[in-house]
Amino acid sequence: MTVADHEPAPERDLYVLIRDFEQFVHHASRVPLTGKVILDEDDVYSFLDHLRRLVPEEIDRARRLLADRDRLLEQARAEAEAMVKQASSYVERMARESEITRKAEEQARRMLAQAEARSREVRASANAYAADVLDRLEGILRKALAAVAEGRQELQATLRAAAHPSGTAAREAAPTREEAGVEDPDGQGAGWDEEGGD
Per-domain residue ranges for the chain? Predict the structure, then answer.
């Protein structure tokens, strides 16, 4: 499985790229008896390049969402102010008419309370929406950074393994004293075998 099998489409989001990278690592060739995998350097860098392109896009999207939140807050504030002014004007106008003064005041108080409640509701909703957007963005960035760190570690492990292949093979091929037919006068053959494996 290569990065060509996971070439991101233009609409691909960050979650899909991270999932594909996990699959890429999962299906990579493994080094026997080590629990390590062999990753193609070009494929890893290709994934990282896609990641670098997607992260700014996610950040821009978050900024747009925050701008929308600010716009909604401003609109809600303007609507609330208009409702408050309307209620105040209504109070002043109705107060001048003596026979319905009491009813006018009651109606105005209700309108004012509704306007204030509406303003609080919209403000709370917008803040909750912004908090949710920021939480999602934080999760996306954490996963992105974790994927980058994992890819870098796998790449470094692969490069180290590729740089010292003969040393590893020699250590695996080295016999113990018992296998070589050499007696251990001190009865510490196991210790010699462990040192030989270092």
Answer: 3-163
